[in-house]
Each structure stands twice: as C-alpha cells, then as structure tokens.
Amino acid sequence: MSERSGSVRANVVDIEGRRIRLAEVGWSDGVITAVTELGPETAGLGYLTPGFVDAHVHIESSLLTPTEFARMAVRHGTVASVSDPHEIANVLGGDGVRWMIENTAATPFRVLFGAPSCVPATTFETSGARLGPEEVDGLLALPQVGYLSEMMDYPGVLSGDAAVAAKIEAARRRGYPVDGHAPGLRGEQARAYAAAGISTDHECATLEEAEDKIAAGMLILIREGSAARNLEALHPLLDRHPGRTMLCTDDLHPSELVHGQIDRLVARAVAYGHDVFTVLTAACLTPQDHYGLDLGRLRPGDPFTAVLLDDLRDFRPRRTWIDGRLVAEDGTSLLPRVTARPVNRFAAAPVRPGDLGVPASAESGSASCRVITVTDGDLLTGSVRVDLAVREGVVRPDPAGDVLLITVVNRYRPAPPAVAFIRGFGLVRGAIASSVAHDSHNVIGVGTDADSLARAVNAVIEHRGGFAVADDTVEVLPLPVAGLMSDRPAEEVAESYQALLDRVRTRLGSPLQAPFGTLSFMALLVVPSLKVSDRGLFDGDRFAFTDVTAAG
Asked: In terms of pTM, does the model score above 0.90?
C-alpha cells in the first residue's frame, strides 16, 4: 500500500452531523474512498476529527522557518495555518513573502498566506520595505496567497484613504477575505470598518467589543498566544455565536509551541463547558469555510487530512495525517528537516551607553516623565507620570520603582536611538534586547541601566538579529533569517529560548509570562496607547509623537 493510502478504525466525529460513531475510514492517493459505519462509539479506539487550523498566525513569531513550524504544529494535530507574513515583509518586502512561500513548498503542511496590507504599519517608524497597492495586488495574484492580511490602518479605512481602499478592493475583486485588526473599535466605527469589507478581527480584549463586531457582521478569532491571551475573556462567544468564531495563536513562541497549539485551546474551551461539536467547528471547519481551504470533513471524496485523538477531553493527538500521509505519531513529527536559504537585511550601528539617556532641561533635580505601563498578557499599554531623578543633565531610570529604560534602534541604517521609560517589566538588574519588534523589526531593548542595555542591544546587532540577555555576561539566541527566525531545528530553538526566559525570570527578576513577547509589542504603534518607535515616544491615542518630559 502506498504512503498516501491506508485505513483506520476509530470513533469518527461528524462535526456537522453532531454525532460520533465507530467507523473504518479508507483512503487511496490521499483521498477518502469509504467511511464504513461499524457501530456505536467504542472506548479505547480514539476519536478521528478533521485536522485543526490555526486561523491567524505569524509563523515568523515562532522564531522558526515555515518548514520547522510545520514540524512542530503537526505534532499537535494542526494541519494548516492562515498565515500573515507581514513580519518578514516589513524587513524584506515582497521578496520576504516569496521566501516564505518557497520554504513552505518543501512541506505538506497547508499554509494559506495573506498579502500584507500595512507595510509599513505606520509612517512613524523606519521599515525595511514599503508595499503599495500595486505590490499588494501582485502578491494577491500568487497562487499561495488567498486573502488580504490584517488591515491595521483602521483610521485609513474609516477616513476612506485611497491606498487603503485600493488594497481592499484588490482582494474583494478576487473574492478573497480581508482580515481586520482594530483594537478597541466599537459601535458605529466598528460597523463602518466592517462595511468597508473587513470580515474578521483577532484583537478583541473584551466580550463587549467582540459582540459589537459580530453584530457588525465580522467573525471573531479568539486568540491565545504568548503575549496576548484572550481565551478567558472571549470563550462565551463559542456557544453564543456558533459558526462565527475561530481559534488562533497569532504569535506563539517556540517554548510554548513544543507543548501545544490549537489542541490546547480546544481542550480549555471544552473544559469551560462548551459543546464539543461547537468548539471543533471553530477549530476545524469555520476556517475552511471562511478562507476557502480544502481540507475535508471526513467524507468520501475529501482529502484524508485528519487527527486521531486520545479522547475529547484532553485532545492529545495520537496521529496526524495530511493528504493521506502520516506526518506525526505519538508526539513525534515525521516531517523531515529542511535547510533554509538565508536572507536578511541588517545595517544598525552599535550604540554606546551615553547614547541611551533621556536629556533633562537641568543638570540635577527631578523631571516629570511620561512612562509606558505594561500589563502582563495584554498588548495594550497605559501611561503614567513619574518624577525621576536628574543627574548630570540626564533623567535616570528607577529600577527600585520598576521604571526602566526602553530603547528602539534603527536596524536599517545608522541613526541615533530613541529612548524612553517603561514600567511593568520588573527587571531588578541587567537588560534584554531583540530584533523582533513589531512591525518594523528594529532593535528594541529594556534595561535597568544604560551600560547593560547597550551590551544587550549591541549583542543583537553583532549577530545581525536575535534575542540577548545581559547582566554579568551576555547570552544570545541568534536569528539569522531576516533577524526573525532561526536556521536551527525547532527543538534546539525552543530549548535555547526557554533558557533565556529562565534567565530573565530568575536572574533579572521579570515576572512577565513572555518578557520577549511583551517587549516585541512595545514598538507596535497601532495598538494603543503609549509605545516607542525608532523615531521616538508615540501616543497611540492621538496618533502622534510626544516627548518623554512633555507636560500634559
């Protein structure tokens, strides 16, 4: 029998028919030829369901190349992802998107790519590329691209910006969905945003916001990633609006990806008391319907793309198949490792500790400063005023009060760094830095003092991308692929990343669940309220730059 032919006897889950029965499923050349019912549900034989779909993910945020991401994902019963490659697009433009497509061609894992809609995300930061309407239209013409990625420029949508409208029209002309990104948008504005052709949103932090957007006609992607965790708040939507929700991770770091993906979200949703068929609809079928994915529903004539689960409580995958090919078994991926062709763009100049200060108007005394505030598990930031000491004409951080230095350094050309203050990272010593800084991916760092911060930032620059931790010594996880992804096996990347996390928590003192993940979003200007780009401190509520020591 060929690699893509076979049969399996299991409790087959008919999600749409809302029933489970013992059956034998046979397939040939990857296509189901028969589903033969054998009797009622039988203990011990496992449960066969369509494979899981991660309905919105940035593969680059796993720090893995697409083929390595696939090797990990299939272990958890995930057979496909709807993937926005705007991280690499911000670094390398359309060439970066094509690189992702090229790498994905070497795996049977299904990836539906989107055409990035907002490169750069704003005009208030330095990016490595710019994708206008013509470039976006060209990407939408590629066969591996099937939707317009998250439209973060919701002010442009609401104001009728011509370039934004042209990108949306290019997708709608092809009958492709347009993904949304509109944190906090409600009421009439949410209705206007949806009416412009936006069909989804994954940025809802509250049930009320999600209900508004569903009422406006949008589908809600319930997100549970490494930095943003919304399942606890949004899970009631599953039973309230069956068929109007999907599950996604958005940004999932390797230390978590090795332990689970959509399977963990499904298990938690069922543990909350939600109907198993409704949850599986969100995890398996609604993404197929919305994005036009042909993954099958375990019917004759469908692709045999499925997962065999231990039970419908813990949802531990026993086996995963894609197009009839066994790709994972008992937690082990059967997909081969693929060597990645290196690509990058990195021209940052090293910084000195003296570059990482906030100047004051006096030589000594104190200064009232605007300070970014961070909440663990939330991409939204706040702002507080703190009086900080001034010495030798420079405003000093206050690690004892958890007011630390934050800097963003232009990675695309030598330029003076932007410096501000931040509270919530909890570092008691040292610094961390990264070249993963959404969305333009300049070098970002947080530290208790300028010397440690300079050492961490310069370690990232020296390696042309990566994560760095600096206290007595400096430790680096290099990310040579666009400064975003490793070229190493997923298991090694996860181990190295976890070691850095452990060091940040135990030696530097951060209480955050995902300190590097949280750091990466401190430059994401389109998510309010106070952030920092390579050009300075940015007020997301007013959508304008502001001074650290400005009054008001």
From this structure: yes
